[in-house]
Each structure stands twice: as C-alpha cells, then as structure tokens.
Specification:
The chain is of the alpha+beta class. The chain is built from eight helices and nine strands.
Length: 249
C-alpha cells in the first residue's frame, strides 16, 4: 500500500492552539491534521482530520476510533466509489491507515496517560481501573467525610494534615476543601464522575490533594499527644497563616 504522511497542520497561530472540552470535561487540545489522501484514481487534497475531541466509548473496538474527520472529504471518497474511481476496500484501508498513524503518535506522546491501545480506550472500566475501584471509593468517602465535618466549624475548630495545625477558618483549609472538583447532584452523574476520577487515578499522575482533616478539641488533643516525642519534642507545628491558639508543650 502506498504510504501516506500525516503532517501536523498548524491551524492556530496562538501558542497552545485551540482548547476544547475533552471527554472528561477537562480542557483538551484540539489537533488538526491535513492529509492528502489518494484512493484509486481519486485524490482528496488537504483533507482534515482532528484529534483531542470527545469520542463515545460504544465504538471504541471499531477501527478509526479516536479520530474525527472532515465529512466532505468522506463524501468525495464515497462519490469516487460510485463512479468506480476507487473501491470501498481502498477507501477503508486509507482511513484506517491514517487513524493508526495518529494513534501511534498519541501513544508515543502518552495522550490521556495511555501507553497502549487499550488504555487509550479506557473510560475508567479497564481491568487496571477495576482493580482500583475500592481504593478510589475509599478516598472519595474520606474526602466527603472531611467536607461534611467542615460544615460544622463550632464542632470541629481545628484542621490538620501532616505536621500542620490550622484553625478551621484558615483560608488554607478552605482551599483544600475545594481541591477535589468532582461533585454531583444525581446518581448517574456521580457514577460518571467516579469513572473519570478512577481513570485519572489509574492512568495518569493526577492526584487530588486531600482536604485538611477537621478535628474536635478532644480529637485534636489525642492527635497532638501522638505527636509528642519521647524527649518532649513536638512533631507538629501551627500554621503561619492562621496562627492557631494551641499550647506548644
Ligand atoms: Zn483504565
Ligand atoms: Zn492555617
């Protein structure tokens, strides 16, 4: 088969190109490729193909998945079949060749955190993701527990993480409560968002920061007691932003 070169066609002059909303609702980079495609005696010049767009998982086992195409170019090919300038096998082979070329490029770049065709097609439902379901559910439950506590600052006047102690009113605590973006109103949405988070957890380096842990005064006393060394040294420190009123001994 004759080879086709797929060259990146720089469509946008601004750095970074065009940003679109990706399958997971996060910003994705629209990529535009221009390919002159010859099928039989018909040539479709400068035909556009697009990457970075949203594709339904229902067709992910079919060749060509993950690539969008300029429909008018496809029409020209169909017309060429009708007039016997090419045949349907040649058209199909050409489109598959382009899709596979683009997929090799994306896998080389680690698009969607993927290094294999299967992981590229994962929507939070591959075997690796399924193995992490319990972990991600546990993380979400803990995040929800902390956010719930945050609603009652009188009951939970302190918040901790690592070595740091904050007042519950500290802006750093507030920021940490907002760090995990996935909240939803409906069960269906909840499941969809869970799968997005699961996929990110499994296939990418994305790790959401856990909110600071709000504590009651009694819980805080215990937390603090566990962080006093044998020689009386303290393994905790008050936040410099909110300067919580705690005894340092
Ligand atoms: Zn997966
Ligand atoms: Zn603070």
């Amino acid at each position: 088969m004759q080879s086709r070169s797929v060259d990146r066609y720089v469509f946008a002059t601004t750095a970074g190109g065009i940003t679109v909303s990706g399958w997971d609702g996060l910003p994705a980079q629209l990529e535009i490729f221009t390919v002159t495609v010859t099928v039989g005696s018909e040539t479709v010049p400068d035909m556009r193909f697009y990457g970075g767009l949203d594709h339904h998982p229902i067709r992910r086992e079919i060749q060509g998945w993950g690539v969008a195409v300029e429909l008018a170019g496809v029409m020209q090919m169909l017309d060429a079949i009708t007039t016997a300038k090419t045949d349907i096998g040649e058209v199909r082979a050409a489109l598959v060749d382009i899709a596979e070329t683009l997929e090799r490029k994306w896998l080389g770049e680690g698009v969607r955190g993927a290094s294999t065709p299967d992981s590229l097609r994962c929507f939070g439902d591959c075997p690796r993701c399924e193995a992490n379901v319990a972990d991600v559910r546990r993380i979400r439950a803990e995040v929800n527990r902390r956010r719930e506590r945050y609603q009652y600052p009188d009951r939970y006047p302190y918040a901790v993480s690592g070595r740091s102690v904050h007042r519950i009113t500290c802006r750093e605590v507030k920021r940490s409560m907002q760090s995990l973006g996935f909240t939803s109103d409906t069960a269906e949405d909840e499941e969809r968002l869970f799968r997005i988070e699961l996929r990110a957890y499994t296939h990418t380096d994305v790790r959401h920061e856990e909110p600071r842990l709000p504590l009651t005064p009694e819980e805080f006393d215990r937390w603090r007691a566990e962080r006093v060394g044998p020689q009386g040294g303290l393994r905790y420190q008050p936040c410099k932003i909110c300067n919580p009123d705690i005894a340092l001994a």
